[in-house]
Amino acid sequence: MSPELNKTKTCNIASALIDQAKRQGDNTAIHYPVGKRGNHVSYESVSYLELNELSDDYARGLIEYGIGRGIRTALMLTPGLDFFAMFFALFKAGAVPVLIDPGIGIKPLKTCLAEARPEAFIGVTKAQIARKLLGWAPNVKLVTSGPKLGWGGLNTKQLCKLGQKASGTILADTQPDEMAALLFTSGSTGIPKGVVYRHRHFISQVEMLQSAFDIRPGEVDLPTFPPFALFDPAMGMTTVVPLMDPTRPAKADPRLLVQTIKRFDVTNIFGSPALLNVLGRYTESENIHLPSVRRVISAGAAMPIATIRRLQKCLSTDAEVYTPYGATECLPVASVSGTELNAEVEQRTAAGEGTCIGRPVAPNNVKIIPVSDSILESFEDTVELPPGITGEIVVHGPTSTDSYWGREEQTQLAKIADTKGRIWHRMGDAGYFDTEGRLWYCGRKSQRVVNENEIMFADQIEAIFNVHPEVARTALVGIGTAGRQTPVLCVEPLDKPGRHRRERIRIDLLQLGRNHAATKSIKQILFHKSFPVDIRHNAKIGREKLGLWAAEKLE
């Protein structure tokens, strides 16, 4: 009935935790917050050995309870000890965790759960109440972290006791192509989709992240996006769980972040551009230095160079700020450091040439093909474009996923097979390679503005206008039928300018547009007090929503 025991050489990411428990036993695996009084946050800690033993107890309990090999299990726990222990326990048991961002909204969340069809639901009491009241995931096995309020199943203490009746390390002998997890996209530029992760994808992600960023065992990580924290124990890093709402990174308290970084001598920070912008502005204004930090890694959207420069001021001269490029379907794809983003690169971005996102992370194979909204069944149906020509970014590599759960049409639109049987993922992004082999990002394919005279990609166009000192950011949207769209520039000012100053900013921006061939056709400028952004990172601009708003304003 049980998976194989005492076997760590398998294609299962939980084997990495078992190995770290042997190597680093009493070293701290996780510091997690348990309370706050005034400006002081109380933390508790757990060692690698304790984390591994707890996940073993949970894993055995899960199997005894009937949550074993291949059982899809919705996981809705808050960041903390149970979140880590249960995640690795599911892998040890061979179950398939289903991760859905709770911030996407009630209706999308219900849709995702209906599509995933989980057979078990592990969640905090609040999540279980929502599940019962809103009809999520009926007739499933239940595990609750916190009080049960009459809905049955087990709580985590009961599960742990059930697992403690047996002993020994437990690890499912999962196969490389066996489904490991369902990770749902945020749906920021479309419908949320369940990305099928296989066990080999997680193993490869850990190896590629370690290699790309020279991450070493013994480092201390502050991950402000919970799913990425799950890699820490596998890489031998101590995790410091920040006290913040992970679904609202732009609202994180920079004082608490700095306090936590200094308290635990954090060496690695992972966060969205929105959070890092808040942190960078605070450290700059307060003249704060963070000497322990060796690297900052941002993901979720392109990080403005101004944000990178602010962060560099608070770091030691040998520390780096990295902006890796990727997606839930394939990560990491490419990466660039703040040092590489020199004045020449910055000038090219401001001139509308796109955002430099660096070189492909080995051993990825990245190509540029003509932009198309159609299904491409084979690479023979397209061609590879030369350097300097903008097209769609496609990638094949160890972390390239091959399908969406229950969405055949979306799978066909996003994947291409070649004659060698390899699956290439279409990133849905436009970009190009320069002659030095660097990849440049131009914008989302679905957000391009197309008319009879030109094709405009949002990130290229917006960078030209974002240099204005009174502008927080801009967003290009197209009004009208595809192929005959009118470009409109939406502007989010830094503050709330009065009518006369707003008119002056408008005149300035129109003049900026006339200075560049790519932006001369922009005649309509609309001011918006606060752009809609994605739930997960609070950084991707919701241009689809802005487009609808702009169309109403111009009626």
Notes on the protein architecture:
The structure is a single chain. The protein contains 17 helices and 27 strands. The protein has 555 residues and is an alpha/beta fold. Among the domains are: 14-174, 3-Layer(aba) Sandwich (Rossmann fold); 456-553, ANL, C-terminal domain (GMP Synthetase, Chain A, domain 3). The strands form 5 sheets. Strands 15, 16, 17, 18, 19, 20, 21 and 22 form an 8-stranded antiparallel beta sheet that branches. Strand 13 (295-298), helix 12 and strand 14 form a beta-alpha-beta unit.
Per CATH, the class of the domain at 14-174 reads Alpha Beta
Would you identify the regions where 5 or more consecutive residues have pLDDT less than 50? 1-8
Largest sheet: 8 strands, antiparallel
How many separate helices?
17
Report the sheet-strand fraction. Answer: 25-35%
Count of beta strands: 27
Global mean pLDDT: 93
SSE-based structural type? alpha/beta
- Shape, per Cα inertia axes: globular
Classify the helix fraction into a percent range.
25-40%
CATH architecture of the domain at 14-174: 3-Layer(aba) Sandwich
CATH topology of the domain at 14-174: Rossmann fold
Alpha-carbon distance between the two ends: 66 Å
Rg, nearest Å: 24 Å
What features would you highlight for this structure?
single chain, 555 residues, Rossmann fold, GMP Synthetase, Chain A, domain 3, eight-stranded antiparallel beta sheet, seven-stranded mixed beta sheet, 27 strands, globular, disordered N terminus
